[in-house]
Amino acid sequence: MIPVISKLPQTGTTIFTTMSALAAEVGAINLSQGFPDYESSPELIELVTKAMKDGYNQYAPMPGLMSLREQIAIKTEKLYGAVYNPDTEITVTAGATQAIFTAISALIHPNDEVIIFEPAYDCYAPAIKLMGGVVKSLELDPPNYRIAWDMVKRLINNKTRMIILNSPHNPTATILSKEDIDELSALVKHQDILILSDEVYEHLVYDGVQHHSMARYPELQQRSVIVASFGKTYHATGWKVGYCLAPAYLMQEFRKIHQFLVFSVNAPMQHAIAEYLKDENTYLGLPDFFQQKRDYFREGLKNSRFKILPCAGSYFQSVSYSAISDEKDSDLAIRLTKEFGVAAIPVSAFYRKATDNHVLRFCFAKRQETLDKAVERLIKV
């Protein structure tokens, strides 16, 4: 064997792959990985089929199909009052994770410090490390997982290059408030700090509350790279189509990396999504759709011994099992899968130090009969 020095020596297989594989192996209900178990819109699938039959099967333009970028610009202005130039400020990506990696690759240099909030989606820290950056993490505590902005201020120094935000948040299902935006704005106002805003669950905000996108606030918009996902929005995670919004000076650097990482994204799907986006009801109706699932799942869990934590957005529900067991969350997640037939994600997997607050995460983007079967098993725990 030829010696290889790993660039990520402490990194193994993601917890999502591990738990989904275990669920498949033992025939458990998979509420671990974040994907729906129902089909996306038949109309959208027909539009993809039509695009293929119409011959749109070769490379799309590197930044994405112009008709799709134009629809993204229209959608963003409708929702947030923000104007993005589809020619220079919007890029279609092969999913949100690629967009996040590309943004970090383009903007983070060796010894740049990046602030993340843990529990954090697991792609942030590895990408920062691969670019030679330094991860500065701030741990958030259950049940509310609020950001302590005075602690963020203490982390900032002349090496701080970026703050990564995720709202609605995976895995905690929290959302940024207007107070958070005000604190953030004041914190970065006189600093050369970029923001990478992971907003893949932008349409999954509940109880009539507003999503505080970075695009909504001009002073933040001009320093922000915003990442979104059509896979999450349109129940088609396997399509791996997302997009990135950024002011032209940042997007120019983003595209320098994007063109060599994937070059371009699935052409017929871009044609289909561009057409589908023309009907704003395809995304405006999502909060009610998912809130019904959230409420249904939470109501069922009331009959269990799990403590239901707040869920203001995303399609994840976290629970505390402190009243059930003292075992590690990773051990309980495995036992829950094998003995009770329901797979969950241990939230310690979202902390670099594997901080264990005895919390599990379930995905409720499932059919009602799937949730019924899962709840029936979980109330036996």
From TrEMBL:
Cofactor(s) listed in the protein's UniProt record: pyridoxal 5'-phosphate
Keyword Transferase: yes
Location of the Aminotransferase class I/classII large domain: 29-378
Domain of life the protein comes from: Bacteria
Cross-referenced SUPFAM superfamilies: PLP-dependent transferases (SSF53383)
Keyword Nucleotide-binding set for record: no
Pfam families listed in its UniProt record: Aminotran_1_2 (PF00155)
Full protein name: Aminotransferase class I/II-fold pyridoxal phosphate-dependent enzyme
One GO cellular component term noted in the UniProt record for this chain: cytoplasm
Cited PANTHER family: FI04487P (PTHR43807)
NCBIfam families: PRK09082.1, PRK12414.1
Family classification: Belongs to the class-I pyridoxal-phosphate-dependent aminotransferase family.
Keywords associated with the record: Aminotransferase, Pyridoxal phosphate, Transferase
Signal peptide positions (record): none
GO molecular function, one term: pyridoxal phosphate binding
